[in-house]
Design a protein that fits this description.
about 20% strand; Lyase, Ornithine Decarboxylase, Chain A, domain 1; about 30% helix; globular; 16 strands; alpha/beta; 14 helices; about 400 residues; binds pyridoxal-5'-phosphate; TIM Barrel
């Protein structure tokens, strides 16, 4: 497993204090959203807007804890949705701001309602554009088509590579040439591409070159170009200057407006998952701490990506004196979070704090094994905790049957 997220910035806000001193009063497991860090990320993103005149949207599939939308709306231009529910959430909770939707395939029975919330509709294929485009245009929407520049810039994470061979995501130039006659081209206001994942602006530069090579003749007809998400703009060391240069290049060259829709970058390192040790077991030479938090249920990307999440005051296995494997309490053998080392022995009842847990966590968790969903707290810059929501047995039961 990689340790791609094991970086100290995840814990800057904790200032070296002990986990117990910080979080002892909270029930575990629980998620904590760090409002101060979210604000810092917002400011960084807003500086790109200020320097270039582009617009930046929150991709809600990564982070959709809407109690924080008022804070984010001071800096961002609106929200991006993967479908009807996220579009409605963006419209309700970030009112007055732009709502953009990209969905791989829209449903007939949802489209009319979607028109109530969305400002920009992006279609994945000429088939979808032909089916829904004219109706969306009549509703006054700005219409886009997702293109596939067939330019992979990432290795190892094929599950996150929309340019992988045989991908369903985006329209290749060959398909465009076959399907996009003058009639359909006239419907389009913009083009959209999303090909990056946790990448720096060097990958964007390579991608933009591919976009220009393949679709450069189309872009002068467009009002906007949406460069998707995957830009790790708020990561320490990210090359902002090159990002701004690329945005300005596109806007000047094709006389259009650039949109970005990062998810991760908005809430990067802005959350924690706090957990307690329930038991310590041993097998062969391996000592295993069983936690009240589960990789499978509460941090699904740990298994899906996979990666080993950063853990406060812990190190890679073997680096400090005591090495433990951390695992979830479910019956899934593979519900393993990772191996870590500590300078003291882990004991039942110890508090452990995982970092960078605001993204792809609260909006992606599940109740497999009848596991409870962790409560969610907001952590104010003044140090106060505010409970945003909590869950119980009914949240588990209601998803499964007819009776309360
Ligand atoms: C996932 C996704 C995003 C956000 O990606 P991040 O990696 O979280 O920045 C933006 N746009 C589209 C179309 C996506 O699928």
């Amino acid at each position: 497993m990689e340790r791609t997220k094991n970086i100290p910035p995840a814990f800057e806000a904790l200032g070296g204090r002990s986990a117990a001193a910080l979080f002892e009063a909270l029930p575990t497991p629980c998620y904590i959203i760090d409002a101060g860090k979210l604000k810092e990320n917002g400011k960084r993103l807003f500086s790109v807007i200020e320097h270039t005149g582009c617009r930046i949207l929150l991709a809600q599939k990564a982070f959709s804890n809407y109690d924080l939308y008022p804070l984010l709306s001071e800096y961002l231009s609106g929200t991006e949705a993967s479908g009807l529910y996220e579009a409605r959430l963006g419209a309700e909770e970030m009112p007055g701001r732009e709502v953009h939707v990209f969905c791989t395939a829209y449903r007939d029975d949802e489209f009319e309602e979607l028109m109530r919330y969305a400002d920009h509709i992006v279609f994945n294929s000429p088939g979808q554009l032909k089916k829904f485009g004219a109706a969306a245009k009549r509703c006054g929407k700005s219409i886009g088509l997702r293109i596939n520049p067939e330019c992979s810039t990432q290795e190892g994470h094929e599950i996150y590579d929309p340019c992988a061979a045989g991908s369903r995501l985006g329209t290749t130039r060959a398909v465009w040439n076959k399907e996009m006659t003058e009639e359909w081209r006239a419907l389009l206001d913009g083009l959209h591409f999303h090909t990056l994942c946790e990448q720096d602006s060097d990958a964007l530069e390579i991608t933009l070159r591919a976009v220009e090579e393949k679709f450069g003749d189309i872009l002068p007809e467009m009002k906007w170009l949406n460069m998707g998400g995957g830009h790790h703009i708020t990561r320490r060391g990210y090359d902002m200057e090159r990002l701004e240069r690329l945005i300005t290049y596109a806007q000047d060259k094709w006389k259009l407006r650039v949109y970005l829709e990062p998810g991760e970058a908005v809430a990067l390192n802005a959350g924690f998952l706090v957990s307690r040790v329930l038991d310590i077991v041993e097998n062969g030479g391996t000592r295993i701490a069983v936690l009240d938090a589960s990789a499978a249920c509460h941090m699904p990307d740990v298994l899906e990506m996979p990666y080993t999440p950063p853990l406060y005051l812990a190190d890679e296995p073997g680096k400090q004196q005591y090495t433990f494997r951390l695992s979830g309490p479910t019956c899934l053998s593979g519900d393993v979070i990772g191996d870590y080392s500590f300078h003291t022995e882990l004991r039942t009842g110890d508090l452990l704090v995982f970092g960078d847990m605001a993204i792809y966590s609260t909006c992606k968790n599940n109740t497999f094994n009848g596991m409870a969903l962790p409560d969610i707290y907001k952590w104010e810059p003044d140090g106060a905790f505010m409970k945003l929501t909590g869950f119980g047995y009914q949240d588990f039961k209601l998803r499964l049957g007819s009776r309360k």
